[in-house]
Design a protein that fits this description.
This protein has ten helices and six strands. The chain is α/β, with parallel strands linked by helices and 220 residues long.
C-alpha cells in the first residue's frame, strides 16, 4: 500500500523540495505545513501514515506538535527531520512520541528508507542517535523511582527487545540471531503482551526508558 506522508517545515523551499522528492519516490504526500498549529490541524484532517516533522517551527515547536499529533492520532507516526542533532532535542522529541529522528544531512535514500520503516512501525534513528538516547534513559532508569517490580522476560525476548530498540527490523533481527522471521514476530508479540504495549514503537520506547543494553549479545 502507498504510504501517505505530511511534511512539516518552516522553510518553504525545503518543505516543497522534500515533498516533491517523496512524491517522486512513490509516497502519497497528502499535505504540507509551515508551523506547528497548522501541522496539528491539518494532520487531524488528513490522518497521514507518517508526519515528517521539523523541530524549529516558531512559537510552538515541532516537539509540541509531535505531542499533540501522537496523542490524538495514535495510528499516525512522527519522524523528526531536523538540522539539530543535539542531545536535548533528540530526547525531547522521543519523549513527545516521535517514532524516530533523522538529521537533515541524511541522504535521499536514507530518508526514503526511514519513512518506509517508520510507516511499518519501526523506530528509526540517524546513526549514533539511538545510542545517545539509550544512554540517557539508562541513566534515568538507574535512579530510584519506587517501583522495582518489572515484567519477567526470557533471555531471548530481552535479546530481541535490545535489537528492536536499536531500530532493526524483524527480518534483520532474524538474520542477526539466525532464527526465523516468524520466531522473531512471536517473541515480539509475546513481549508486547507481557509489557501491555501495542506496537514496536512503544516497545522500543520501553527498552529505552528501562536502559536496556544496546549492545547485541554473542549468539551461543
Amino acid at each position: 500500500m502507498t504510504v501517505s506522508v505530511m511534511v512539516v517545515d518552516d522553510h518553504p523551499m525545503w518543505r516543497e523540495g522534500v515533498a516533491r522528492d517523496l512524491a517522486e519516490r512513490g509516497f502519497e504526500v497528502v499535505a504540507t505545513a509551515g508551523d506547528a498549529a497548522s501541522a496539528v490541524r491539518i494532520a487531524k484532517a488528513v490522518r497521514p501514515d507518517v508526519v515528517l516533522m521539523d523541530l524549529n517551527l516558531g512559537e510552538l515547536s515541532g516537539v509540541d506538535a509531535t505531542l499533540l499529533i501522537t496523542g490524538e492520532l495514535p495510528e499516525t507516526r512522527v519522524l523528526v527531520l531536523s538540522a539539530s542533532g543535539e542531545h536535548d532535542d533528540v530526547l525531547q522529541a522521543v519523549k513527545a512520541g516521535a517514532s524516530g529522528y533523522l538529521v537533515k544531512s541524511a541522504s535521499a535514500d536514507e530518508l526514503v528508507e526511514a519513512v518506509t520503516r517508520t510507516a511499518a512501525g519501526d523506530a528509526v534513528f540517524t546513526a549514533g542517535l539511538a545510542g545517545l538516547v539509550l544512554g540517557e534513559y539508562r541513566r534515568m532508569a538507574a535512579a530510584p523511582d519506587g517501583s522495582d517490580e518489572k515484567p519477567q522476560l526470557t533471555d531471548r525476548e530481552t535479546e530481541v527487545l535490545r535489537l528492536v530498540a536499536k531500530g532493526l527490523t524483524a527480518r534483520q533481527i532474524a538474520n542477526r540471531l539466525v532464527i526465523s522471521h516468524r520466531t522473531v514476530e512471536n517473541h515480539v508479540q509475546s513481549t508486547l503482551r507481557k509489557l501491555q504495549l501495542h506496537n514496536r514503537v512503544e516497545l522500543a520506547r520501553y527498552a529505552i526508558e528501562h536502559g536496556l543494553d544496546s549492545e547485541p549479545e554473542a549468539e551461543k
